[in-house]
Amino acid sequence: MTTTFLFDGDDNAPVTILLAHGAGASMDSASMTATAKALADAGFRVARFEFHYMAARRYGHRKPPPRAETVNPEYIKAIADLGAKGVKGPLIIGGKSMGGRVASMIADEMFSKGDISGLLCLGYPFHPPAKPTQLRTKHLAALKTPTLIVQGTRDEFGTPDEVATYDLSDRIEMLWLEDGDHDLKPRKNISGFSTADHLKTMTDAVKAWASRL
Asked: Residue 88 pLDDT more than 90?
């Protein structure tokens, strides 16, 4: 089964970003769509895809999210299928929450082969909510792929105080968005920031980071 992609941005953009969705929301969710459009407006070509369990939900098959590592082969195939579509130039892989986590588990293999240039995680699920000791960080300590993790300061999957205590590779850069939740959304009446503000901060940071890869 060939991977189905949603594309945003110019076909001739110098850098392509491949994004997978989080555990509970599809590739065309409001959050994923806003993110893809913001990155496309910043000059990237963005490709979104779905893991099989999520695609099956479109046909009425309510499958729960599988263990993240079991969909690693699907991500690797998406990279190959994107290449088969003739996508040239540097490729950054990543995604929202679980999608970013899956990308992070295959990143070094792909990076060592020259298939990707970097990893972009949006709301990394460092641990399940209310379970701060169930860490999903072991592979991040030795990560060799240049990585940017964009995280809201009130993300219940990993707060600044928690993340500061983790053993993370020096290839990982963190961008903290003030008062952002797991979807990076702030409460404007409390923080003074809007979702659009944070999307702009995120895309500016991704652009600057990608230019150094």
From this structure: no
Average pLDDT for 27-35: 97
Sheet holding 118-122, edge to edge: 6-8, 45-49, 16-20, 91-96, 118-122, 147-152, 172-177
Structure tokens belonging to residue 73: 């082969």
Domain extent for 177: 6-211
**What letter does residue 138 receive in the DSSP assignment?**
G
Listed residue (66, 99, 103) closest to 182, CA to CA: 99
pLDDT at position 53 over 90: yes
Sequence-ordered list of residues with C-beta below 8 angstroms from that of 74, at least 6 positions apart, any chain: 3, 51, 52
Instruction: Provide the domain count of the chain.
Output: 1
1 located within any domain: no
Q: Cα–Cα distance between 40 and 15 in angstroms, integer? A: 10
* Residue 26 lies inside a defined structural domain of this protein: yes
Cα 16 from Cα 190, distance rounded (Å)? 35
pTM value is 0.97
What's the half-sphere exposure (Cβ side, CA atoms, 13 Å) at 34? Answer: 14
Q: Beta-strand (E) ranges in 105-167?
A: 118-122, 147-152
Q: Is pLDDT at 124 greater than 90 in this prediction?
A: yes
Quick check: is 111 in a domain? yes
CATH number at residue 186: 3.40.50.1820
pLDDT > 90: what percent of the chain?
94
User: Nearest Cα to 79, choosing from 117, 41, 43?
Assistant: 117
